[in-house]
Sequence to fold (483 residues):
Amino acid sequence: MISNYLKTFALCGILALSVSCGDDKNGNEPEIPTPPPTPVPELPELPEPGEIHNYKAPLYWSVYEYAREMEIAGVPYGDMDLTTAQWDAIIDMMATKFKPYGYDMICTDGFLPQTSRDGSGYMSHYGSMPLKELVRRAKEKGLKVGVYDNPLWIKGNLDQKVPGTNYTLRSLLRNPQDKVLYPNVTTDNTFTWCVTDHPGAREYIDGFFKHYHDMGVDFVRMDFMCWYEDSDPGRDYLVSCGYGRERYERGLAYICESAAKYGVFTSIVMPELYNDAELEKKYCNMTRIVQDTNIGGWHHFSSFNRGVTYKRWPYADNQMDGFTYWSHIGVRGKIILDGDFLRLNKCSSDDERRSQVSLQLIAGGPVAIADTPETIGDHGKFYTNEELLALNIDRFVGKPLSDVVNSEGSNIWYGTMSNGDVVLAMFNREDNSRNMSVTLSELGLSGSYKVRDLWEHADEGTVETAFTAPVPRHGCKVVKLTK
Fold:
């Protein structure tokens, strides 16, 4: 999505302003010295998988809609900001309307300036808001704060030391000795990247997580990892020199080590997911599996390039296709699949709103509200369906009858709760109402089951052979089947 790429350049410009390169008196940037070869240590011994994948999908609010609308309106990147009054209104909305239902966090995103102003070498301000102050204000109302940042991005004065070492931040940058995928790309025109096999990289990443832990932040969304690994191949220009898969895995291993140490949830946003998400499944708590939210609504949920898949990030452009494509790795106790933010105010009907919220919860993903206090109107009721939110509490993860994108089976999702109840969801992506049906044998069931509609909060008798129901255009039917 172009908005993702544009917000990168915003961040890049701000990082450039916040990084002191130690220019000489003539204004020339000093050359980065080539260090002597240093043995690369073994990858760290990581916690057991059960210790890494011990989180449920988060329920939270994101600043995305505010930022994206500023971008669309043409607000210069350096001028993008939220006032203190706006932050207070956000915190008040979440604390009063959504916290009772389990939404316990607000989170920053890209777009706005992310700067290091406290001498730590890590982000201290999001726009004009000091993160410590944002955490304090949220904590007063019982909410947590998550941040959009990447431990492989270097901020701060390049001549300052990596915490606990004698290495400078400058020493973590690419040097002429480094072998990269695209050596002719002499400077990255996006982010200031940490080269993870340089001495001090492990300590820098550890300092990143300690910085946020000490601040009271325990959720980090890490973006643009595909640009680091291999410069996002398939584009018409190179966005980095491509640091390679070995450095990418090393970075993820250090991230996993420190995140587990400090109790920080890691969400990876733009990974290549090569080899069936081999590395991401091993090292991360959650991964995004679909294109950027952008304008939201039915566009993001179903219609954007429906049925089209790719062999590299983003694999699919809409949520239904993305969740279907990756449903085989979505398993209880494994990596969480993220369908990105919801903007229910951009939907054209309540049926579309029910579909969007239902899919996130039936697929075991997060529900991330991007509607603002000004745009949410009375749509909050779709986020607070307690019978559906029980799936999130249960850490439920469903799957479609078929993981073939855009097949009829991909519209029917089901799964079993920890108490043995089966939840069935039918999604109608078509522009006309229709009857949808599934046999109990297709769900691996037999016998008689009581039926309860989770949106209508009503019992609907029993079913013994097949379940059939009318489903409105762009709508869904979600029921719980109890033996």
Remarks:
- The mean pLDDT is 92.
